[in-house]
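Complex record, two chains
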Amino acid sequence: MTRWAERSVDVPRAPGPADGWDARSEDPAGGSGSGAPRRGPADPVKALMHQYRDLCERAVDPLEIAAGLEAHGLTDRTVARFRHRDVFALAEEMYARAPRGGGDLAGTGDAAGAGASLGSGVSVDTVTLARVGTSVWVGTSVWVGTPARVVTPARTATPARTVTPARKVTPAPPSSTPRWALAPLPGAACALAVAGAALGDGRLRLAAGIGGALAVAAALWIALRYGPLRPARRASRTLHVWVALLLAYALVGDELLMAAVSGEPVGLRPPSAAVALVLAGAVAPGLWCARIFAVRAGGRLGASRGLDEFAASVRPLLIAVFALYLCAVGALLVGVGSLRVPGAGATRSLVAAGALAALLWLGRMLRAHGSRRAPALVYGTAATTQAAAVGLVCAARLPGRPGFLAAPAERLHAAGGTGALPALVCAAGAAVLLVHAVRVLGRASAHATAGGAR
Amino acid sequence: MDNRPSRHRHVRIRSSRCEPPGQRRLPIWEIGGAHVRIGLLTEGGHPYVGGETGHWCDRLVRGLGQHEFDVYALSRGVRGERSGFGSGSAFGFGFGSGFGSGFGSGVDSGFGSGSGFGFGSGFGRRARRARRRFAECFGELARVLCAGAGVGADRAGESGGDGSGQLADRFGSALYGLAELARDAGSLAGPLRSETAVRALEQACRAPGASPAARAARVADLLAVADHLERALHPLSLDWYGDDALGAVDLCHATSGGGAALTGLLAKHFAGVPLLVTEYGVRLREHYLAGAGAGAGAGAPGLAVPARTLLAAFQGKLAAEAYRQAAVVTHGNAHARRWQERCGADRAKLRTVHPGLPSSRFGEVGEREGPGDPRTLIWVGRVEPAKDLVSLLHAFAEVRRAEPGARLRVVGAPADGAEAAAYHAHCRALAAHLFPAEADGAPAGGAEPVSFEEIGGPELPSLADAYAAGGVVVLSSVVEGFPVGLVEAMFCGRATVSTDVGAVVEVVGGTGLVVPPRDPRALAQACVALLRDPGRRARLGAAARARALELFTVEQNLTAFNGIYLEIVSHCPARREALNEAGEPVPFARPAEAYVPGRWAGVRRHEGTRLGPPPGPGLCLKPWEALS
């Protein structure tokens, strides 16, 4: 195997257009058919190339080889032995004689799946590099005349380094593995709090509720701060206000609206435990789905050869992941609905909670990929609509106020029952955000922090 | 307009000198001297630059008291900026944050704002025009990088062919176009990471003239290139180029290539300030080595070939443009000079300014009559594999065979890192193996043939004592840049034996013995020759000290830079409109003769046209203008 490799590589030539595994690989006898004259057996540059073949293969231009050679201690005086004026001239010869992987890369269009499994998606040419490395550079120093005189220090005469594509292929282990395993924490904390509140009463219930809320908030902060849904940029304060409004409405808003419509006194009410369970429980599938999306998109980033191709492959992925998330939330809804917790009876409130979870997930996904304005806009619209509905209904009950202001909300309430309004608003918001996310997350630049930094 | 980049977690950029005028150090006025205001551009934050030249900039600023320095530091992170503000130094500082890890991906778009843009993300005509200009300029830049990848970087200056010259012009125009855009429309951090930039890169890579390596680029490569370009082009977004900052200095002194040189280029473009580039380590070479190190390092995967190709093309083009626009380019040794010539620097602009080392602490040892222990070899340095102590130990074994009474003292701590520590242990083990304890012949009291010591012990309280302890100083490195230890030994008046690496021959000249690297036998022969000949040792030591005092002192470094400053301000002054006290332009403040082309002190005509900021036909200056 080694002999034909030597013979085929010995002739100086321009880097071939085909890949490293071309005709001469199959045909050992006629590797260089033109019959070009061999160099003499004492081709010192060849031994040098063998010694630095890693460098030669990696180099993108002669200067890189020159820099690498100098870093290994070659100077212009030692280069004279290779019949060159200076290191640059030697590097140019080495660059010209080194086999290139570039032409191979340009030619293959079907290797799209090769990098798909890579988490980082940066090194995509490993397969071809490995092939070039093994086919051409195996044991070329066998018959070189004076290998001992080539700059091989006694200390560095370690066994010749081999191309190790395996090192490049193994993706870096995801750094957030232990953290995104913490995803179920908010749901668990909320479940514990609800259970505690259900068992006790009075003061104990209050304590359980407050403690549970704090625990859920802490768990949520940890999960979202370090998980795959970490926002690329800090949120504005208004965004926090909108999210707080949305959550508050989901927890107590339906009761308020019902009281306002039916004319009961509007007062402080305990939040709906079922909705809290749904929202806290939806964090875990949200994190996992985001993780799936990030990993898959990262793989496609490395595999795609063009931006359009990438967009075409990522957009269906986003929709599929979103559908997966919806399924998970749906299962959660069914589970919570079958429990005997306060608020579980109102089906539409639960559906509204599910829609809100979808809305928040999409907004969080967008923020994790650098988009900040669209989530704030949609959150703000949804929260304002819900607050306005309650406010208008309450305002219509004041003496001397026109009643028609509350008519739409009341009519919706009469037609759809409790929870119809938030379900509608959140679903509409989620739809808008989904359309926007399909547009934005299909851009490669949205994945730059994920793909470029890692 | 406020051009500050809005990335969070970065300290605010102080736009110009931090200290109020009252707290600034008054320059020393001398009769007949010239007062030059210098914008010192550094990278790596405060204090100045790192690397083997250490506090070179600090010495420059403090040593040239007759000039005024405004230090503009591009910092790599938050830490450097914090330390900078507390220093209370006597000169002005400007800080720019950049080169940190990037946050945010610039997709901050609302509904309808096209492609995720900075520039206010507006719908207005200005924002649209800015977006279009950005797409044009960045597309041009990307096309140049793709077309010149692999061929342009190395040939830019040497071949001087039409193609590479044209590419260099296109690169410059694209770069300055982007800079003007950043000045007019705000920070480029968002646009450079936007979809527009990535798409422009993709189109350039797929264009007909692109190099094969660029054509193979995938989406991940494009993103990586955009990310790196954003960091490299960060100086474009700084607001340093106004009349109250770099526009007011007489010359810009970039202390390295890369970002600092880019800042100087922009100052030259916007304000016509002449540029001096000093490279003690060639930035392009460091870029290649860093890329190789990142690729070979375990863990983080390096960039793929297409991305590295484009980035190397960018660095090469940037270096070529800096060399082309600079009035003077200096380097520390012939090796750096060759790289600069290779990257397209005009030989007429190149000056060698050797690094200066403080020599006073070696003065006492150097002046002392008695040379140290005549049978002791000294090796001083940080123990690491590049120093090749193994060869030295093998050589010393041969020395011992010829001169049984010889000793070798290895002075130095292991360098940082596990590898260096392991190497240190390996060397000690090898020494113990080569020179087993000779119970019979060895005199008592720590006179074993090979000893490993560190500075600071009772025997060797200072570095000078280490050199004073022996008669011959040995350097056995296989890789070396500027050999600081060798220069210190020369300051101490010691005869030296060194390997022929890096700038050793240039430093030693004829005042020491030089042997091939990785050749223990030659090293041993040279050492034995010196050990046996005290007269030669003394002669070589005296010559070495004289040479070092002439070439490698701080004073010569300062003098050289002072001369270069004066040369630059006299040959290509930054021409500004003269203002009176009220800030109004004064007509005819500069006499008309100042603009008449003419020859001055033998400088060639074409050089003047290239150096002068406006496209004037020749070199023009007045003596009082240079001295004002």
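Note: The first helix of chain B runs from residue 56 to 63.
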